[in-house]
Amino acid sequence: MHRRRDVRGQFTGAPIPADVLGRILAAAHAAPSVGLSQPWDFIRVTDDRTRRAFHAHVQHERTVFAATLAGERAERFDGIRIDGILAASMSLVVTYDPARGEPAVLGRHAIADAGLYSVCLAIENLWLAATAEGLGVGWVSFYREPFVQELLGIPAGIRPVAWLCVGPVTHLETTPDLERHGWARRRPLADAVHAERWRGRDDQLPVGSRRG
Amino acid sequence: MHRRRDVRGQFTGAPIPADVLGRILAAAHAAPSVGLSQPWDFIRVTDDRTRRAFHAHVQHERTVFAATLAGERAERFDGIRIDGILAASMSLVVTYDPARGEPAVLGRHAIADAGLYSVCLAIENLWLAATAEGLGVGWVSFYREPFVQELLGIPAGIRPVAWLCVGPVTHLETTPDLERHGWARRRPLADAVHAERWRGRDDQLPVGSRRG
């Protein structure tokens, strides 16, 4: 978990052995889900035309975001790589189907987003399993959902949740990219922990194992 | 990942050693987040009055859900335990703060929910780390968000994402509760994997490592 990174620039492009891919998908599929609905799907994308089309869309969205920045923030963003779509061995697109397990998904009547949460749990399992297998994973989120639905023929009502670039890497960085580029800094764990109520001070908690 | 379960009935109530709690929170805090925003917080709840009040609310929501069921579904649901709030050593409530990292969270301009996704990745890290430490975790989702906000003094705009019951357990079941009770069945992994496009058949993929 502490070794895992969000990878952009270290992909080698070497193929992922089929048994390795099977294991990381099985790990994702073993995630918890509300009402045991398992509302996720995984689309493996290797086709060059598809990846190029998505890459061009992401580049466009990069300019949209860049236009909201000024001065030093804009300069820093210039140096930050936001995707490894063409360099990674493959992309795995993870989707959410709200109809899975209906009617009456146990545990979803009061919280409509609970199904979406389940999909994210599967994504983290996938990411950690890939890390354990020595692969890198990079989550690209500079895209509009309707573009991805159209590109991959995803039916209306089914929502793309993540576009993940996956594959062997030369190495995993030890510091997150955005910290290395001075874009953001990690927050101390102690600031995120509260006792009994919001902002309840937690003096007892030893956070000595804090690794950021 | 394959050993992890969503626990309701096996909590012993024994205390969680402080160093163990520190490690599972550090694991959660090491999760990936959009723009390195780390938009999560963790509220440790042990107070009996708070837990009883939440438990009563969950029991009420159980009746709300039960009223939507009929016949055999209603009967099956009767036998299913939906929470371990009072039996578990503690609860950990995980929240999402959309203002964290603003303005201009890198990677969130096109997908508003990306911050919420990050919180879920932290929850899965927490869950897996707890499993590795021999603890059980149960995600309770029979509640209304405003009730939890009020109960724990969570400010408007910050959203409770999960109420997790955490603690030592007698054992972890090998089959999910909802499958043991005949409520739902796990889906074969092969059904969830597509090649290149939605419903693209993936004949190459070995899913021999499939463990459901």
UniProtKB/TrEMBL annotation, chains A, B:
Gene name, per UniProt, is bluB
Gene3D superfamilies according to UniProt: NADH Oxidase
Provide the E.C. number(s) assigned to this enzyme.
1.13.11.79
Q: Which residues form the Nitroreductase domain?
A: 3-167
Q: What is this protein called?
A: 5,6-dimethylbenzimidazole synthase
Q: Does the keyword Acetylation apply?
A: no
**Per UniProt, which keywords does this protein have?**
Flavoprotein, FMN, Oxidoreductase
Fetch the InterPro entries from UniProt: BluB, Nitroreductase, Nitroreductase-like, Nitroreductase/BluB
MF (Gene Ontology): 5,6-dimethylbenzimidazole synthase activity
Q: Pfam families annotated for this entry?
A: Nitroreductase
